[in-house]
Write a structure and sequence with these properties.
The chain has 251 residues and is an alpha/beta fold. The chain has helices at 49-61, 85-101, 113-120, 170-183, 203-219, 225-232, and strands spanning 12-13, 26-31, 67-73, 106-111, 127-133, 156-162, 187-192, 241-242. The chain contains 6 helices and 8 strands.
Length: 251
């Protein structure tokens, strides 16, 4: 009996969140989390409701400017060590944006392990900005090379992390941001006081902060004062900026 070949898994872009604009002038690629090691097929659970909520909010805010948002569907659930599968999938997705939409700015927005993938893939020529929410980063090892940051040069980068995150270490994202800001002033990091990994306690404030950042970096909208101050502050002052109280309710 002939054996069936194992199907080749391919990365793909999910359907545009909301109604895709007739003329796309900016794209957000939403990068879910995953497992440290796994070659299993991803499930819908890897695109959490938090990420889709962010995508819907951004598409509503950017409808007039021509914003499209897509969730990236990975080939595998795992990062898988040096294979860094989620990074190559994110780079493919940025290439696909160029193929579909042409020369438009791209923001990589990742949660958990997707945050690390967004930071790693930030050097793609189409990417002008990176948003990493509660990023999963490897424990620092003096014998290993540090997590790279040179690829973030020329990009605007925002990291958001809860101070009580027990799944991904906020201290590691602080250290990465500190190294990145030495070479690129356009790096900032907000701490969400007492919030955990899911950032549910200050959910509205975090979503509003993300919206403010993305609309500013993709379409030139005026950034809110907390974000402007965070970018302008020299290291390390711009890296432990607390999330402004009531941020999500200002209008």
């Amino acid at each position: 009996m002939a054996q069936q070949a194992t199907p080749v898994r391919r990365v793909r872009l999910g359907k545009a969140i909301g109604s895709e604009p007739t003329a796309v002038s900016g794209v957000v690629l939403l990068l879910p989390g995953g497992d440290e090691v796994s070659h299993r097929k991803p499930t819908a659970l890897l695109a959490p409701s938090y990420l889709r909520t962010l995508g819907r909010r951004l598409t509503r805010a950017g409808r007039g400017e021509g914003l499209a948002a897509h969730v990236v569907h990975y080939r595998f659930r795992g990062w898988n060590g040096s294979d860094a599968n989620q990074v190559s999938d994110a780079l493919w997705a940025a290439d696909e944006v160029v193929r579909r939409y042409g020369d438009v700015p791209v923001c990589l927005a990742g949660v958990d392990m997707g945050g690390r993938a967004a930071l790693r893939a930030g050097g793609h020529e189409a990417v002008n900005s990176v948003l990493a929410i509660a990023p999963w980063l490897p424990e620092e090892d003096v014998a290993a090379s540090p997590e790279p940051v040179k690829q973030l040069g020329g990009r605007r980068v925002m990291i958001v992390h809860g101070t009580n995150d027990e799944r991904t270490d906020p201290e590691l994202s602080f250290r990465l941001a500190a190294r990145a800001k030495k070479a690129n002033r356009d790096v900032c990091r907000f701490e969400v006081h007492s919030d955990r990994h899911g950032l549910q306690q200050h959910r509205e404030e975090v979503l509003a902060l993300a919206e403010d950042f993305v609309m500013g970096v993709l379409f030139g909208r005026v950034l809110s004062r907390p974000v402007r101050d965070a970018f302008a502050a020299p290291p390390p002052l711009g890296l432990r900026m607390p999330l402004a109280s009531g941020f999500g309710r200002r209008r």
